[in-house]
Write a structure and sequence with these properties.
The strands form three sheets. This protein has a five-stranded antiparallel beta sheet with strand order 1-2-3-5-4, sandwiched between helices. A three-stranded antiparallel beta sheet has the order 6-9-10. It has a three-stranded antiparallel beta sheet with strand order 7-8-11. The protein is about 30% helix and about 25% strand. It is of the alpha+beta class.
């Protein structure tokens, strides 16, 4: 097993999941601070494993509301294992299969356009993470003034259509950094990949099942086990 994996995850729950039918033998393609990306079941998909459900949830909401400027989710496995058993703040391993995207750096022109967008939106070309409610509200207001380019139009619309409810109904960090913008290889369009951080929205039924199971791989979750659907409210116009 790649040593990079153990720098991010450890323990029996991770080892059991890594040996499961879905991830066994899958090549590690990339990693984040709290996530790993593996080869998917198809040539154009990847398995994304994280202790944070926010990025997957954003893709689920985008699919439910036909918002296309977000990494497309093929299968949402939800919380598949109890990672850290804490009476008050347990951590889970969340798994989803997403479309394969290319890094923003693969398109210099798109990279410059996203830098321009972030400069107006956040004040810096690298982007910013927003944690306080007041800063998130200012961010929503700035969405009405960002430049619209053909390549960035869909991801800008995705921010406008989905971000409002995350700001008003959750304590998620809003992660508008340049690393969360990626390229859809067959169109060249820029899409969002995980623009929100730190969400653990798990049903009591799922939580009880995980407390008595090593891992649960149900495929796409049934509606009653998925995170609660948040209706979106448009912020400004595209």
């Amino acid at each position: 097993m790649n040593s990079v994996e153990y720098q991010i995850f450890s323990g029996e729950a991770f080892r059991n999941l890594r040996s499961s039918s879905l991830l066994q033998g899958k090549k590690l393609l990339g990693s984040g601070s709290f996530s790993l990306v593996f080869e998917g079941s198809e040539a154009d998909t990847v398995f994304h494993l994280s202790i944070d459900n926010a990025g997957h949830d954003y893709s689920v909401k985008a699919k439910q509301h036909s918002v296309d400027g977000v990494a497309r989710i093929h299968r949402d496995f939800g919380a598949v294992a109890l990672y850290q058993d804490d009476a008050f703040y347990p951590d889970y391993l969340w798994l989803a299969e997403l479309e394969l995207l290319h890094p923003l750096s693969s398109s210099p022109a798109a990279f410059r356009e996203v830098q321009d967008l972030l400069r107006i939106l956040t004040g810096v070309t690298e982007g910013v993470i927003y944690s306080t409610f007041s800063e998130k509200c200012k961010l929503l207001a700035r969405l009405n003034h960002v430049p619209i380019y053909p390549r960035t139009m869909r991801c800008t619309q995705a921010l406008r259509k989905l971000l409002f409810k995350y700001v008003t109904t959750t304590s998620c960090d809003i992660d508008i950094r340049i690393s969360n913008f990626m390229i859809r290889p067959y169109t060249g369009e820029v899409v969002l990949n995980g623009p929100v951080n730190w969400l653990c929205d798990i049903s009591p039924e799922r939580q009880a099942r995980l407390a008595h199971s090593e891992i649960i791989l149900d495929g796409t979750l049934a509606p009653q086990e998925s995170a609660q659907i948040l209706p979106f409210q448009r912020v400004g116009q595209a």
